[in-house]
Write a structure and sequence with these properties.
By secondary structure, the chain is mainly beta. The protein has one helix and five strands.
């Protein structure tokens, strides 16, 4: 997962502590950070934002082409 940090934060998971400094560039962090109380509170006050990459939508479907119509018979000139 990627996050933007506007204020330095320390995320705790058991004995593991992950400290991330302020940055304007998205930081890659383990997914467990999302489940911490620090992340929840920081997201509420806006000091942390999760970066979500949304794929572009698929192109619109192409309209069905009209079936080929038989050509009208042409008269031959004499």
């Amino acid at each position: 997962m990627q996050i933007l940090i506007h204020k330095s934060k320390s995320f705790h998971r058991g004995a593991t502590v992950l400290t991330i400094g302020r940055s304007t560039v998205p930081q890659t962090v383990p997914d467990w950070v999302r489940d911490t109380e620090t992340f929840r509170l920081a997201a509420q006050d806006g000091s942390v934002q999760e970066v979500v990459i949304v794929p572009p939508p698929p192109p619109p479907p192409q309209p069905a082409s009209a079936p080929d119509e038989p050509e009208a018979p042409t008269k031959k000139k004499k």
